[in-house]
UniProtKB/TrEMBL annotation:
The keyword Heme does not apply. Its EC number is 3.2.1.-. SUPFAM superfamilies: Carbohydrate-binding domain (SSF49384), Glycosyl hydrolases family 6, cellulases (SSF51989). InterPro entries: Beta_cellobiohydrolase (IPR016288), Beta_cellobiohydrolase_sf (IPR036434), CBD2 (IPR001919), CBM2/CBM3_carb-bd_dom_sf (IPR008965), CBM2_carb-bd_dom_sf (IPR012291), Glyco_hydro_6_CS (IPR001524), Rhodanese-like_dom (IPR001763). It comes from the Bacteria. Residues 171-202 form the Rhodanese domain. Residues 320-351 have a biased composition (Pro residues). It is an enzyme of class 3 (hydrolase). Gene3D superfamilies: 1, 4-beta cellobiohydrolase (3.20.20.40), 2.60.40.290. Belongs to the glycosyl hydrolase family 6. This is Glucanase. One of its GO terms (molecular function) is polysaccharide binding. It comes from Paractinoplanes atraurantiacus. The keyword Disulfide bond applies.
């Protein structure tokens, strides 16, 4: 099994005890301890590819079957100094959407035993500092966290002392994240790897008694039926060791076709599996998730974690359209807020089509401590081949994430330049970029240069 190296941020919603069902917004779970609608990040690699390639013959298929769906976001860069703000911003965006995001932490030292996804923290002390900052970013908001794929099932490169040290680190990380409001699941491997009894032993040694359960099949291809049966065996084995009440999460991102070799880069018989949902219909299973984002490579043919449209199209071929969510028929008990009749004192920026380019800004969502913004860039009366947009950051603001553009910051001046795919605009044509920032939302004065 190999894991994607894609990076980003975190997850969030509301809190309850592990023994009770936890509600995360609209929706009702038929089983498990979670309910609600999973969060779909609008800036995933697949979403960016779809936006940049509207005329590609594969776009419609990839958009409808993959880009339309939520997938777990990976924290795989060891970035102690910035991870708290990344997590805080992403948690806020998810909370503002009223949805449930999933976050995969992937920074344990000696991860993947030095394989295609090697890396992680330099040592376990620095790893704990990284986890502490992630927990701080959650700010008490309940988060669905998949902790360190491969860390328990894959230990062939570790000595007995190193295994013990890793187990202690995972147990400490679990308690830290639980104290911050997270729902935490540990690495259970998959049904064709370690036997259920061995998986249960390893989970017990790594502190699963403090976690909500375990996940299986991450980045692999085992059928949901096999994983469900395996999960029941692991739960039974844990119970025989005095550890009860644990539940399973299954990665269904590419288990709708053949099983076999771990690497999916060269295989055309793989398919996406069950669409992501918290409505599992099984009391032992909290979620079917797309932990491995479909279309991201394993590292044998392409760079690990890189998005490859041919892989995505192959996975989506023959898949049915995803189910649609029916809005509730019961009206809300609280009437919607009436928009203010007083116009804003500061008018929004608008593109100036008479010049080389113009830019318009809108705040798309806000939360305590952060906000998300969108900027529309418009060419003037002549075509342009590149553009940049600059503005002055207000006091307390810092940008934690940008998509569809390249960010640079000098002092209090933020500048976003076009990405490789959206710099050329015909006369009057537009493109967009977005960002997540900490601090209070303001309406900046934008300067567009072409």
């Amino acid at each position: 099994m190999r894991i994607p190296r894609s990076t980003l941020a975190a997850t969030a919603v509301a809190c309850a005890t592990a023994a009770a069902a936890v509600a995360f917004g609209p929706g009702t779970a038929a089983a498990g301890t979670l309910s609600g609608t999973l969060y779909r990040d609008p800036a995933t690699a697949v979403a960016r590819w779809v936006a940049a390639n509207p005329n590609d013959s594969r776009t419609a298929l990839i958009s409808s079957r993959i880009a339309s769906q939520p997938a777990s976001r990976w924290l795989s860069n060891f970035n102690v100094g910035t991870v708290q703000s990344e997590v805080s911003g992403y948690v806020g965006a998810a909370a503002a959407a009223g949805q449930v995001p999933a976050l995969t932490l992937y920074g344990i030292p000696n991860r993947d035993c030095g394989g295609a996804s090697a890396g992680g923290a330099p040592d376990l002390n620095q790893y704990q500092a990284w986890v502490n900052n992630i927990a701080a970013g959650l700010a008490g908001r309940t988060t669905l966290i998949l902790l360190e794929p491969d860390s328990i099932a894959l230990q062939t490169c570790l000595s007995a002392n190193e295994i013990n040290a890793r187990n202690q680190a995972l147990a400490t990380a679990t308690r830290t994240l639980k104290a911050a409001g997270a729902k935490v699941y540990l690495d259970g491997g998959h049904s064709a790897w370690n036997p259920a009894g061995e998986a249960a032993n390893r989970l017990a040694n790594a502190g699963v008694s403090s976690a909500d359960g375990f996940y299986t099949n991450v980045s692999n291809f085992q059928s949901t039926a096999n994983e469900t049966a395996f999960g029941r065996s692991v739960i039974s084995a844990l119970s025989s060791r005095g550890i009860s009440g644990k539940r399973q999460v299954i990665d269904t991102s590419r288990n709708g076709g053949a099983a076999g070799d771990w690497c999916g880069d060269d295989n055309t018989d793989r398919r996406i599996g069950r669409y992501p949902t918290l409505d599992t219909g099984d009391a032992n299973i909290d979620a079917f998730l797309w932990v491995k984002p479909p279309g991201e490579a394993d590292g044998c043919r392409y760079a690990a974690g890189s998005f490859q449209p041919d892989l995505a199209a192959s996975l989506a071929t023959g898949a049915p359209l995803p189910p649609t969510t029916t809005p509730p028929t019961t009206p809300p008990t609280t009437p919607p807020t009436t928009p203010p009749t007083t116009p804003p004192t500061t008018p929004p920026n608008t593109p100036q089509p008479g010049g080389a380019c113009g830019a318009a800004y809108v705040t798309t969502s806000t939360w305590q401590g952060g906000f998300q913004g969108k900027v529309t860039v418009q060419a003037g009366s002549t075509a342009i081949t590149s553009w940049s947009v600059s503005w002055t950051l207000a006091s307390g603001q810092s940008i934690t994430q940008v998509w569809s553009g390249n960010l640079s910051v000098s002092g209090s001046t933020a500048t976003v330049r076009n990405a490789a795919y959206n710099g050329s605009l015909a006369p009057g044509a537009t493109t967009e970029f977005g960002f997540i920032a900490s601090g209070s939302a303001t309406t900046p004065s934008l300067t567009c240069t072409a």
